[in-house]
Fold these 3 entries.
Entry 1:
Amino acid sequence: MEPHITPAAPSAPSGDLHAWTRDFAVMSEHSPREVPAFPPEAFFDRELSWLVFARRVLAQVEDSSLPLLERVKFAGIMGMLHDEFFMKRISGIKRRIGKESIKLSLDGRTADQQFEGCRTELVRQAEALAVVMREEILPTLAAEGLPIINYTEVGESAQRDLSGYFRESVMPILTPLAVDAEHPFPFISNDALNLAVMLPTNGEKQETFVRIKVPDNRPRWVLNAHGFVPLEQVIAANLDLMFPARPPSRAYVFRVTRGAEGDLDLNADLSEDELHEPGSIVQQVSAELKARRFAGVVRLQVAADMPEEMVAWIGKRLGVTSDDIYPTDAFLGISDLLSLDTKGRDELQLPRHQPVTHPRLKHLARSDYEAIFREIQRGDILLHHPYDSFDTSVLRFIESAAVDPAVLAIKLTIYRTSKGSPIIQALAEAGRRGKQVAVLVEITARFDEAPNIAWGRFLEKEGVHVAYGVEKLKTHVKLALVVREERGEIRRYAHVGTGNYHTGTARIYEDLGVLTCHPEICDDVAKVFNQLTGAIGAPEYSHLLVAPVTMRARFIDLIRREAAHADAGRPAGIRAKINQLQDPPVIRELYLASRAGVPIELNVRGLCCLRPGVPELSETIRVFGIIGRFLEHSRIYRFENGGDPEFFIGSADWMHRNLTNRVETIMPVLDDSVKHRLDRILNVYAEDNCSAWECRPDGTYIRRAPSEAEERHAAQEVFISAGGRHVPAPVTASIEAELETLPVPAPLDDL
């Protein structure tokens, strides 16, 4: 099997990759506490590196060895990733261009150079996606009896049925908006499909522009006897029913993407007095959410057959330049493939994965709400989701605490959670039972601000103490604390995780968590909650690494310690599994550790600004990432420590924002059995020979492939099959219904 290769991120603006490394030994002759300045060529651009990650996702669409509907799912994810990249990252670059910012990126690019590089790669990826859809995915869907076809390709009988559907179920919803002397150009909402309709004017040769929004509360793919027909085509083909006196002469599809760059500016437009008013943050977030709807346009997608003069006319009214216009002959809004109704075609998907109960929790009687606490007393429990069931571990931990008479208090952080969340219901039940319940709701979690405000208000009505984050810092910690009274004494239990308390994503995101009653860990967790809810100063922590207070400095000390071990000839090494790597101080320390001879293995799912394998800079550093059916989301850090390895897990990546602008927690692993299991997990990833992508010094990624003598070894498949966890057997109706509504694994918070 030939490995797949992703193109390199566009090269740095100037400089030779190896020219500057010849003098690196001289650059490194500093005291251990002095970090040399590294030239821009030592780094990859953050935005372009993320787009190289998107290329690896695109390779899943192109991979003919995957089941068809898995490829369709990844095609939808690609559309969603591009949408979010425009909203978050392109909007930020364009803002810097508009301000004429002179700040350079990590690899020395101006904002204009970043935009041009990103635009080129985005266009290249969109074209590649269109080709694979046109030449492989759509024909194969048709061959399997699931065709997505044009309205003109169905017979007259089917067209009559579709016309009836339009007349009865679609036309009553539509609102045509004309543009003329009396009607201004309408507001075009973000990511909605639209039809640009040219309506003949009575008695004149001129035409009137009419905009019709394609309703998003109707199925995008209209099922009929011949297959799925895009809703916008059904509307366009039947506009004579809406305009019987003047049937439209032309109709073209277009779509707008608006910016949502950065986190909400909570202090914008607030006076000093207003800023310190109780509840002002909630009011400001609500106002910002309303303002976001009207943010500037960063992308105008148009059908390839739309006339140039119409494209220019629409673009002018939206305030975009030609660089912001993206014609395509593919479906607009390709993320809607995620809603394609394929029920009953399980043979075209990977076998459904059903999480299983952790071995140490299997014997616990459901009615025994004290049982899970007794089990935690026996030793820390490491949970690896989605292989270990979230419902029978973390959810059970919270639900048991809610009804256990011995529990006095529950504290928990909410960053993202699911609709109808059983976690929220359990917290409300605990409040109704008179327990002290405190919840930190992060209301600036991007795109989840509105539901988080709603959850907070619901919990407040149930008697729960709700805090809304920390001023100027996003709260990204994943912590839960339960306080019990046992034989007249207080004992605390904690869950420290890498993922959100979200029962939906817990089935499709790979994450870790530890259930513990270690007194010092629980004491640190309690201090974090007091800091978050009580607005007190940063306390001293005995074990936890807490950002932005101690985390970066502690990680840098750990990296430098490994360099010292290597210099002294002692065992040294760093292994990390993270989502993103971008923090310049950490990268510089990794380079110096590599220079000292420390072997460094970095399992980085997404963007990586570090160049691995460069002589005299990073030749002992290996970077790879896993792409599979589950979104890799956990963070593990392992330091060899002279032969006495230390392990850490938690919420933070090695990103500037995580270490500087967020409240994050990383927990040292103290239980030997948990350390051993983490070692095995890291080894499984390192041995992956088919779903791992290796980063090369020039920024290209090559997919590992087993040799003829090797067995296939995909990490996620190994974890699924371990302990009989691969369960393709039928599941219960309630689980079936939940699986149908699960979100897709998009790294929403990683951009």
Entry 2:
Amino acid sequence: MNMRRHALAFVIGTLNAAPAAPLTAQNPQRHFTEGVEARFARSQPIVHYMLTIRDGDTTGFDVEMAVSNAPDTFRIAMAKHPEYDDRYFRYVENLMADAHVTISPQDSTVWRIVAPGGKALITYRLALPPSTLPRAAWRPFLSRTGGLVGGPHSFMYVVGAELAPSHVEVVTSWPNISTGLTPTAVPSIFYAPNAYVLVESPILVGRFPTWDFSIDRVPHTIAYWGPPGRPAFDTTRFRNAVERLALAAVTLFGRPPYREYVFQFQDQAFGGLEHHNSVTLGAPSELLAQNPTATLSETAHEFIHTWNLMRIRPAEYVGVGYQQIQPVPTLWFSEGLTIFYADLLLRRANLPTQDSTRTARLQTVIARYLSNPGNSRFSAEQVSRVAYNAAPDALGDYSVSVHQLGETLGTMLDLIVRDATNGLRSMDDVMRLMLERSGGPRGFGTADVERAVADVCTCVVKPFFAAHIRGAQAVNFNQHLALVGLRADTTSEPVARDGQPQADARLWAWNPPGDSLLSLLVNNPRTVWGKAGLRSGDRVVSINGNSVRTWGEFRQILGRARIGDVVHLVVQGRREREPRTVSITVTGYDRPVVRITEMEGATEKQRRLREAWIAGSP
């Protein structure tokens, strides 16, 4: 396919669908010296890394950190990721330095270095922890034919010199190296302009195929690692789908905000993690053999984060650091609007989606909202603050997905903007304005989102934000759907599989650190378990006379329960001195079913807005 012709056709179609906002540069410079990557400063340390993967060794890798031009005393640390702090400082071994250098730990993630003359060669080994398959796609691994290294799990940095550039040499006998780090004339050496980019650029190594494409002459690479003998799949269809998705995202925001981009797909893995110009994604070959587009939704979500999270950055995301970040009240926007666009951009690119139409998607969104009483008990900001780095029972007997709640609220805001502007603008314009205003050092808060929406629609949105973002008022869906001539009717029906009612198994458990007993997670007080008096935080002594110590054991016993069975749990509450026995007769349960239809007597404006919304027009 001719990439330039395809891109031109896509953009022309988009421009014909609705007026386009003027495009502006996403990385404006204020002086020509800002284009020089490394500036001179006598006070700035110089850091170089060498990461060595030894042939046949799948247990870990070695890192050499050469520091010069530093103070006589400085500190090094391992970074905490704002979402997934896997605490890989636990796996640092053999931390050593030159004979004239002393190293002493300050806490679990920070070490004090005394190096007369400000020069030190520091070495350590990262011993990889045992892992089970499938593994999380963002965690490092090594196999006989490849692995994932680098990122916050591998590199320490000089505290106080977070803006110091560095070079990274990857020593390996494998032929392929895929990373978002800047390549140099030497294929095994890469450049990082600062410590943030260093730890936000994982490195995929091994033997694997790659595919390239360009958007607006910006190169994109798809790398796919899999073990020998993996199931074959249609790589052409897989590659083309990723390209079409990327083009849809670039068309939305105006241009790529990166020099180049790398998709790092891995077999035998799940999930994904966004970075500033790369993404690590699990893509099981068995799944792709059945459907080459099976991982598109996850790919879309993580890729759109390149803009909405990495550039449109919450104020609490302050760059690389070794301390846990403050709770983030705006993740409903960063995660929820990303989910919103993951679905919408797949539609605009004519790629498969989970729901057949936008109306069907909205029915699913509303049904999920209504099925969870926590959505109308906690504000979007409250839910956002406990989305990461909080205990699973942070909301007590409720659990709310910031992704689902944010998608719901983002959808309603899109309808408000379309109505107020007579269809001339949409959430697209809000996203572009947020990118322009909050894509730099300042970051954004809820007030910035509210201001951007109000400025785009030139309407009053304060009541919406007060009710649903800062407050926990239930959403009146028909009030907002009426803006585009739609209405939602809700009924309930028993949850069934193959026509058979399913038992209410909506009870979870987890292992709190330092506790040998599981703790319950009720997550919904309306379940048969919540109605029986069980509470999140109750410690599990036994189930049906069986002592359970892991989530797998707990789920196995609970999963065997059928409607009418009696389950006996011995639990002990946080403030109870003695355990108590709770006997629960298992029942089925209902779920809300939402059906969206066209309003009778809709105006011409409502019909026009409805048609544009259903079509996914900007």
Entry 3:
Amino acid sequence: MTTDGLQELLSRHAPILRFDARELFYPTAVEPYIATSALVVGGTELLPPGEVTPEHLDHRIGAQSYLRFISDHDRRSVVREEARRLAGKLLGPRLGRVGYFGRILDALFLLSVFLRPTTPRLTTVAAALKADRHSFHQRRTCYGRVVQVGDWLVLHYAYFYVMNDWRSSYQGVNDHEADWEQAWIFCDPADRRPVWVVCSSHDYLGSDLRRHWDDPECVRIAERPVLFAGGGSHALFFRPGDYISRIEIPGLRWLLAVQKWFQRTLRIHDTEDDSGLGPALGVPFVDSAPGDGTEIADWDIRPLDEGQPWFGDFRGLWGLDTNDPLNGERGPAGPKFNRGGDIRLAWADPVGFAGLHGTSPPSMADPQASLAGIEAGLAHLDDEIRQSSRLMALTSRAQGDAETVAESRRLSRLLRQRTELRDLRRRVTSDDVEGRGLREHLRNPAVPIAPSRGNRWMLAIWATLSVPLALVALAAPFLLNETSVVVPLLVLVASFAVLEQLARGRISAALRLTGLFVAIALLSGFVGVITVSRYAFGAALAAAALLLFVGNLRELRSFRRRRVLDAEPSSAEPNSV
């Protein structure tokens, strides 16, 4: 295809993005951002704002570098009225959307924010004011490329944002300067018609990120898919609504099984995912993607070209490097590289990133005709796996850990591709080829959470107070020198479990829980005494309660009502609008 043909194809299917009404940042061009940022290498400012050009961001800089968009002077220049005008745009009672376990885990995460390096306060406000001052958002820009990967013709779109303000503006996981989000459309190369749409969502990968072009969930306007951007995080979704995202905590999955058994026993059947546990036990956060704000359809599409040094060679970070050990508050790397400087899977192998290995475009879907190609592909993969194993052994001795890790990831990817091709060969020989259904590939797709039941203000107040009150109640026996702390603990658990159900408007569930705990109390009698160093432990619990209450109260004060979108799409919703 000619350059004009590629540009026309990118423009014809460019996704339409819809944003939250309170969004502060929109996709923009990278050149003005580079020109107004400082270049920092090894902790030392190499070039100040105004002197950095895209040509400076090449292979000589290395991965230990980053662009700093907001300076200390920018933050000090923010006046109180501007901070009040731009900050505190919360989506509602976030903690009320998740269960008690989730709120306990959230308390632990909040404590970690105080202990680890994070993006400095007022960075969001200063970034929004600076972006407005330099007119960053007047022309909405996205970057695109067209590549042939395997049998697929891939349209790749990348969106650059000045700031990810998910934590400061939406009580999300993190804040960081700069943000890259991406979307892909997989076309049949025979007629260039779209078959699959894929959109990035945090650090997830695999088949759950894609929807078939004819799936009713893939809303289209003419030949363009419509995607909904999460407020502050800019994660992309196929349906409007609020989504639960979690930071998974390993080693606690057994709690999920216990909770599910408990709910089945007491016939507490949730129609919304408010347990705080979900498919993976983790700290819960809400992605608000109602699509009730700005819609961007008229894009200035620029080439995502490896020949540009700022993209093809720059392995540093696009925003302030806070050295956060959890990485969440560090600036991101570009679409081509990970933070460690190695190549992203989504760039080198978008087919594997979307879980499309082992599938073919419709024009090549004849199973018997594909069998010879599958065998040839398996033979080729076997050769590459052997070579990669040998290369990894050499790099571990000669070049160091970074190269070994990169080669190890490549080897894992090759082994995964081989397994997928073997599965496809089995399906072809048994005449059970994947792809006849539009949603068979989905395992755990993102689904909007249902509107909260009960009084939303009551739920918001209870969610704010519940964990701090539990900590105070837990600290009381230690501080009051009670001889037994087990009985108060049992009473505490019972009381809060019942109050949780009442706050959610589940009267029958609260009554069943009350009966269960009364029966347990009658059967167990008095429990033995536990002795600990009471005063130190009790004081620590009380201090944690106060700290958590202040953080939750700040969120509650910013709570304002808004229309809650229906999480279920209409069954009559057409594929195109």
